Description:
Blueprint lengths: L2 H22 L8 H13 L1 H11 L4 E2 H4 L8 E2 L1 H19 L4 H4 L2 H18 L4 H25 L3 H29 L18 H10 L1 H9 L5 H20 L3 H18 L4 H17 L1 H9 L9 H6 L8 H19 L10 H4 L25 H34 L3 H20 L9 H21 L9
Antiparallel strand pairs: 1-2
Helix pairs in contact: 2-3, 3-5, 3-9, 5-8, 7-8, 7-19, 8-21, 9-12, 9-21, 10-13, 10-20, 11-12, 11-20, 13-20, 17-19, 19-20, 19-21, 20-21
Amino acid sequence: MSKNKILFYSISLLFIAVNLIFVAFNQYYIAFFPVLLIFILASITSLDKVILSIVFFTPLSIQLDYIIPDIPVNLYLPTEPLLIGVLFLFIFKLLLDGKFDKKITMHPVSIVIYIHLIWLIFSSITSTMPGVSFKFFLSRSWFIVALYFVATQVFKNYKNIETFIWLYIVSLIIVVFYTNIRLYGYGLNNQLASNWVVKPFFSDHTSYGAMLVMFLFPLVYFMTRKNKKLVTSVFSTTVFLIFVAAIVLSYTRAAWLSLFAGIGLLFLVKLKIKIRYVLMAGVGVILLFFSLQNRILNSLEDNEAESSGKFSEHIESMANISSDASNMERINRWKCAVRMFKEKPIFGWGPGTYKFQYAPFQFSYDRTQISTNFGEIGNAHSEYLSALSETGIIGLLSFILVVFMAFRTGYRAYHHAKSKELKQFSLYLILGLSTYFIHGVLNNFLDTDKASVTVWGFIAMLVVIDVYHKEKNLQIKE
């Protein structure tokens, strides 16, 4: 036996012996040491595979407190430990090389991301709960570093963009079957059960529905593009139909609304209506709402349709703000966010602090049968109002700027792409991303790996297409 083999077996036996001792004392952490070594080796040799593996594991990740209740530090496993590792490796490489891809670092999207992160630091320093806020900042940082900055380098190889999407979709299919098999046991029209049968993979049906809708548009692209193989066409169509059924059975009204809005945006793009006119129309609708808000609210209060397993009633209940507990609680959370903003309009209460601070801002006449004081059943129920209450007006504007620049980059890539296939792909990425930020008016999930991996990943794809691929006459074949 060679010396190398003897050394290998000796180290392995030593690790097993040490691990058994730790297990005997109910300490299981050392068992993750080989996984850490594998990660470090993979990161050095092929970081792209680490990023793509994170994407695959995201829909299947489970929060640590689901395994160890009441743990003070909560993470999504296995995704966030991997993301933390990528963050450290990125910083180490940056310090070692002293440079990064200038086309990415100086891109307008990257610049507004810097502004967003810098303001998160300022608002964390002034936070009412600095520990919570800096943890939030670090979490946002490792998502952006891995799924935006590192991902842009991975996406220079165009095939990795499509691989990213398919890995998430395939993993999400597993969750879809798991969820609907469980739902079948309670009845497919059981709207109440749909809220928790997604656990432990998703916290509730709203984030699950949002991700299904987000990937529906890329699936349309795979179904309709040229030069596709028959097997790809059949598989894409099958998955598309499965996702449509899953969206219906998720009973997520906000997801349905974002899907309809995405389809509307598709028609506007196809009609070649300029984006500035769309924005002007949006501002006009907002101004009209505020000028007629009393009449509109009085009309909505007459709607008494309750959310239920019947599709038509569930759709109608979207506008019920008089008796539907879910809608009333959402409005309660929104009012709390606005009241919090009015008290701290510049720096806000601190990133990630809404659920700990909103309780005193609930008025008795706004509380519902599902109201709590601990941020349960969702957070601020809005990406935008959450940013407003936690990071103040500048924080909200920095977040909106990121969203605006992402779409502006996407539209530029769509209009200037030489390849027709790439042009269509850019459009469907924009539509998928739009469903999330429209959904973000009613819910907020960017503090979770499920949404952050996809949102920052989609933005990275649009930036890379804009910088590296739009001038190429790509002939996308399978």
